[in-house]
Design goal:
It is a single chain. About 50% of the residues lie in helices and about 10% in strands. With about 250 residues, it is mainly α. It has a single domain (about 55-245), classed as Ferritin (Up-down Bundle), CATH 1.20.1260.10. The strands form three sheets. It has a three-stranded mixed β-sheet with strand order 3-4-7, with no helix packed on it. Strand 5 and strand 6 form a beta hairpin. It comes from Flavobacterium nitrogenifigens. This is Rubrerythrin. It holds the Pfam family Ferritin_2. InterPro entries: Ferritin-like_SF (IPR009078).
Length: about 250
């Protein structure tokens, strides 16, 4: 069996930022993208295969190569899914946010949960021994963040979405398999819509949705950051210990 990510196109006749964001979501279906159940390295000399994620010295490590990048993405999607789950379940969600904001945040919640579950299912199918090589469900702590505060929630959402886009962009060069790169490209396109939508909620009818703080004005491209730059930021929310010794 095979896995594929399907994305429904946005109706170009709709001109609101809400419509720009609106997607039917990503769904797992049983045809298309193959996640091969093998590692990047052939180890006939009994050396450690660092491309595979798993427990090393008592701590889970993300590994390297394609599996390392996919596991890295799975960790970040767990964080985003957990954050938006807490947002939409906050006691004042229906009173603090406008109807438009609730629609956008609920859409983002659904998208991130699907992203998280996709990576979990895909890695389960692809890893040689998922019982020991699949990143466990992570635990999170948001410190003093008030989930009943519109300002604090949107500011945190902006930080997470901008970081997520930069993470996918930075990890792309580490992916060797064309199918995996295609998958990452599809998902980062959705994450970029998320980032733009959140920025528009914070500052409506402005140019902030593609601000020059995230888009390089000389290249016209979004920021791209290596895992070593992203993970310390994510670690501010993730309490489960893991390492990424073999990712740059």
């Amino acid at each position: 069996m095979k896995n594929e990510v399907k994305i429904q196109e946005v109706n170009p006749s709709l001109d609101s930022r809400r419509s720009f964001l609106k997607l039917s979501g990503l769904t797992l279906v049983t045809a298309g993208l193959v996640l091969a159940g093998c590692s990047d390295n052939d180890n006939d000399d009994n050396t450690e295969d660092t491309s595979l994620p798993g427990i090393r010295n008592g701590v889970f490590d993300l590994g390297s190569g394609d599996f390392g990048v996919l596991t890295y993405a799975y960790a970040l999607e767990q964080l985003e899914a957990d954050f938006y789950t807490k947002v939409v379940n906050a006691s004042s969600f229906n009173t603090v946010f406008s109807s438009l904001e609730r629609e956008v945040l609920t859409d983002l919640y659904h998208h991130e949960v699907v992203h998280r579950d996709f990576f979990k299912a895909a890695l389960n199918r692809a890893l040689p021994d998922p019982s020991s090589q699949l990143l466990p469900s992570l635990a999170f702590n948001y410190g003093s963040l008030n989930f009943n505060s519109r300002t604090e929630v949107l500011a945190t959402a902006k930080a997470l979405e901008d970081t997520g886009v930069a993470a996918y962009n930075g990890a792309g060069k580490l992916i060797k398999t064309a199918d995996y790169l295609l998958l990452a490209g599809k998902i980062v396109s959705v994450e970029a819509r998320h980032a733009a939508a959140i920025r528009s909620l914070i500052n409506p009818n402005s140019k902030d949705f593609a601000g020059d703080d995230i888009v390089n004005m000389s290249t016209g491209l979004d920021d791209a950051k290596d895992p070593s730059k992203i993970l310390p930021i994510a670690a501010g929310f993730i309490t489960t210990k893991f390492t990424a010794k073999y990712l740059p």
